[in-house]
Write a structure and sequence with these properties.
single chain, alpha/beta, Aspartate Aminotransferase, domain 1, Aspartate Aminotransferase, domain 2, 2 domains, four-stranded mixed beta sheet, 14 helices, about 40% helix, disordered N terminus, binds pyridoxal-5'-phosphate
Length: about 450
């Protein structure tokens, strides 16, 4: 097993364990559709061949063709408001009945209102918005805007980061899994070591300042850096830098005319306890990219929110996407924002995140497989330990499949981190059920 597989974004299906899981599926109809899926889709190590065939979803749960349900603590991070929230579905239905598509050069009320709502909630001077049909494309627009605004094409981003799977996004994304075999990537994309995420030590602020200084050294040595692209914290493995890191990086960027681009695609809209994750660090970037749950898990939608004075692209198009101002996606997003605020989901994220993290700490006291637990709002990650020569990634995969068998779906990230991301609507009872399942899975997997 290569380190490329060990450290990737999600659990890959090259370990053979997915085949084993599939061979245990007895339902004939499910087997038929899984085979059809494999026949007609190109294989990809993070998706096809697939785990199961879904029939329906609602709230925290996915249901398969055979009628079994999974608690969905993964949801591809589109499920801030839970799956198929009635308010989101209703908004989409109503919009479909009136204006389903808005050709470019026309606009529509839902798209304008959504841009306004995103801008009004954004910190600092982040007031200008462009939409895109996916997060990768929002990153792409941000990279172009940074080139136009600064006249510099170089970027700094972190090793082992992920910003999407297109060629420009993998140039700034540092995960080898996505770069393997791709040949030359974007010129001027410099990868640096990510910041230390152990914020509890006494010298953490000093370490954070030194890391920011290291970034400044790269900017000075390179001379052409126009943007620094990063997640405010590494979401899938829940690695959270000290706030001093981002404040120091902000100062470095200001000193050298470098735009700070925050990729908040999976964490925006309340998961961290704030509407935008940057608020938790007290730092205002120059551009925020959001996506995933913006479309309510119903419509594909992402956005770039930029400083108003960066609105200078009068001769070059940044996005130019067919679904640039989708009224249906905007209606879904407006409903999502309403749900997040009316149902108090930001406060709930903090409460449920603390509950889940406490439960995992309790499991840690009983299961040697569990290592340090990290949480930031309702993003919760638990490191898995190696045992008697069995690598941590293998134990983590065993725990994941044993949990799936028992009805809990989540992702393994960074090779050996159990990545637990429930919807923000998750109930206390569902958190309890998930911990109970993990308890059984940890016993089975050790
Ligand atoms: C941090 C981050 N950036 C960008 C993306 C890409 O978003 P999309 O899949 O919507 O293109 C993802 C998707 O997982 C992500 O997690």
């Amino acid at each position: 097993m290569s380190t490329v597989i060990d450290r990737t974004e999600g659990d890959v299906n090259r370990s053979g364990r997915r085949d084993l899981w599939r061979s245990g599926i007895m339902d004939a109809e499910t087997r038929y559709w899984l085979e059809m899926d494999e026949q007609y889709f190109l294989h990809q190590p993070l998706s096809t061949p697939c785990l199961d065939v879904l029939a329906s979803s609602s709230g925290s749960r996915l249901k398969n063709l055979a009628g079994r349900s999974y608690l969905d603590f993964h949801g591809n991070n589109v499920h801030q408001a839970g799956h198929a929230h009635p308010a989101v579905i209703q908004a989409v239905r109503e919009q479909l009945d009136t204006l389903a598509f808005s050709p470019r050069r026309y606009t529509n009320r839902p798209a304008i209102l959504l841009a306004q709502q995103l801008a009004e909630r954004a910190p600092g001077r982040l007031r200008k918005v462009l939409f895109a049909p996916g997060g990768t494309l929002a990153i792409s627009m941000a990279l172009k805007l940074a080139r136009l605004a600064t006249g510099k094409h170089g970027t700094i981003s972190f090793r082992n980061s992920f910003h999407g799977a297109s060629l420009d996004a993998i140039s700034v994304g540092g995960e080898e899994h996505f770069r393997e075999g791709m040949g030359p990537l974007m010129h001027g994309a410099v990868l640096v070591t990510p910041p230390d995420h152990d914020s509890h030590t006494l010298d953490a602020p000093a370490v954070a300042r030194r890391a920011a200084k290291g970034i400044e050294d790269v900017i000075l040595a390179t001379g052409n850096i126009g943007a620094l692209v990063a997640e405010p914290f590494r979401y899938t493995t829940v690695q959270v830098p000290h706030p001093v890191f981002w404040r120091s990086v902000r100062e470095v960027c200001d000193r050298h005319g470098v735009l700070l681009i925050f990729d908040e695609i999976p964490v925006c809209l309340g998961r961290t306890g704030a509407f935008y994750a940057c608020e938790r660090f007290g730092v205002v970037p120059d551009i925020i990219c959001i996506g995933k749950g913006l479309g309510g898990g119903v419509m594909p939608l992402a956005a770039m929110i930029a400083r108003e004075d960066l609105d200078r692209s009068y001769t070059t198009s940044l996005g130019h996407f067919t679904h640039e101002k989708s009224p249906v996606a905007a209606a879904a997003a407006l409903a999502v924002i309403r749900v997040i605020e009316e149902e108090g989901l930001m406060e709930r994220a903090m409460e449920m995140g603390a509950l889940l993290a406490r439960g995992l700490e309790e499991l840690r006291s009983r299961h040697p497989a569990i290592g340090p637990v990290r949480s930031f709002g309702l993003a919760v990650g638990a490191e898995v330990n190696s045992h008697n020569g069995t690598p941590a990634w293998e134990i983590a995969e065993r725990v994941m499949y044993a949990s799936l068998e028992r009805g809990l779906s989540f992702k393994v990230s960074g090779g050996s981190v159990l990545s637990l991301m429930p919807p923000l609507t998750v109930s206390r009872d569902e958190i309890g059920q998930a911990l109970e399942i993990l308890n059984g899975a940890l016993t089975a997997a050790w």
